């Protein structure tokens, strides 16, 4: 099948303004729970989200990261502060997130402002990670040029030996970020590409709901 022939018909359900909660975070958590169906394949990660960032000059990059918590209305994830995305978020705190749950023919887009998590939260989460992931956070200088994967593995093995039977400390260059949303869009695929799009925009302490054209 050629690329231009690839298409699907979206007809599972619809979405009306009267169907959604007045609080977009409550609505998000409802959809997130519905996305966690018991018969999903092992490779599917419901908490995977595309994070788009831009530097001070407007250069945009995107990548998939994992949502690791929702606290006080903020969406949390963890990464290397010195990575390309970390540098861009330091220059420009405006980011966007996108969740795609194809098995439900749904998509959620979130825009907001990002900030670093409290150091105590980063340390607490780091200590809950598998040891291999902890060691990997020490070894990786994310986004930098390296000579070979073998060199990475040698550093990993050396650290594994160094911290044998010891607690691995959270590296200074690694930690959490929290996105404070200012806009949500809930997208439900519909036949004929007449998709349902319900948008929440922050207006002071309130959220304004509107339906968008597909």
Between the first and last Cα atoms, what is the distance in angstroms?
26 Å
Give the number of DSSP strands: 9
Radius of gyration of CA atoms, rounded to a whole number = 20 Å
The helix count comes to: 5
Order of helices and strands: HEEEEHEEHHHEEE
As a percent range, the share of helical residues equals 10-25%
CATH-scheme architecture: Roll
Textual characterization of the structure:
The longest helix is centred in the last third of the chain and has 14 residues, at 149-162. 25% of the residues lie in helices and 34% in strands. The protein has helices at 24-35, 84-91, 119-128, 131-139, 149-162, and strands spanning 48-54, 60-66, 69-71, 74-80, 94-101, 106-116, 174-188, 196-203, 206-211. α4 (131-139) crosses α5. The radius of gyration is 20 Å and the shape is globular. It is of the alpha+beta class. A hairpin with a 2-residue loop joins β3 (69-71) and β4 (74-80). The two termini are 26 Å apart.
């Amino acid at each position: 099948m050629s690329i231009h022939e690839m298409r699907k018909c979206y007809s599972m359900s619809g979405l009306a303004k009267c169907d959604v909660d007045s609080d977009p975070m409550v609505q998000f958590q409802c959809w997130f729970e519905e996305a966690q169906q018991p018969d999903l394949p092992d490779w599917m990660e419901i908490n995977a989200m595309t994070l788009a960032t831009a530097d001070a000059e407007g250069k945009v990059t995107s990548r998939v990261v994992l949502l690791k918590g929702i606290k006080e209305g903020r969406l949390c994830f963890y990464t290397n502060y010195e990575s390309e995305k970390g540098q861009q978020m330091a220059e420009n705190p405006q980011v966007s997130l996108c969740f795609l749950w194809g098995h439900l023919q749904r998509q959620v887009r979130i825009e907001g402002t990002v900030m670093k998590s409290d150091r105590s939260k980063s340390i607490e989460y780091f200590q809950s990670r598998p040891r291999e992931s902890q060691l990997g956070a020490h070894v990786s200088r994310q986004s930098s040029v390296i000579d070979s994967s073998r060199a990475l593995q040698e550093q990993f093995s050396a650290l594994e030996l160094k911290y044998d039977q010891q607690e691995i400390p959270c590296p200074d260059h690694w930690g959490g970020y929290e996105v404070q949303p200012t806009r949500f869009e809930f997208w439900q695929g519909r036949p004929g590409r007449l998709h349902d799009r319900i948008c929440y925009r922050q207006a002071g302490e309130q959220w304004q709901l509107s339906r968008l054209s597909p």
